[in-house]
Design goal:
By secondary structure, this protein is α+β, with helices and mostly antiparallel strands. The chain contains three helices and three strands. Helix 1 crosses helix 2. It starts with a strand and ends in an 11-residue tail after the last helix.
């Protein structure tokens, strides 16, 4: 599960994780957290500013492969940001179109 809220466009994004004991023992929970942190680091390239994101790991994440966890994280983030719609900060809206705030193409 992934929850997101829009922040000010110039404010750095913040990402938090909730991994309960229902996911598994300490070794499993820490592995899930490490994988989620890496997935979040990849998403910061696109959503580096203007978001507060909370990821709640479900018990199924303990048995998920890296590719499956990354794909689930990406699709959850995309659907959540789509639902935010007009509440997105100006910089995030410009980022999704592939241009900077000044209107120049991104590299």
């Amino acid at each position: 599960m992934l929850y997101a809220a829009a922040l000010a466009a110039d404010e750095p994004s913040r990402i938090g994780f909730i991994v309960s004991k229902g996911v598994g023992n300490a070794v499993v929970r820490n592995r899930v957290k490490r994988r989620l942190r890496e997935a979040a680091a990849c998403s910061l390239r696109e959503y580096g500013t203007g978001f507060a994101i909370v990821v709640r790991a479900l018990p199924a994440s303990a048995n998920a492969s890296w590719n499956q966890l990354l794909a689930d994280y990406g699709s959850a983030l995309e659907s959540t940001t789509n639902r935010l719609g007009s509440r997105l900060p100006r910089a995030a809206v410009d980022r999704s179109t592939g241009t900077t705030q000044e209107g120049t193409q991104r590299a």
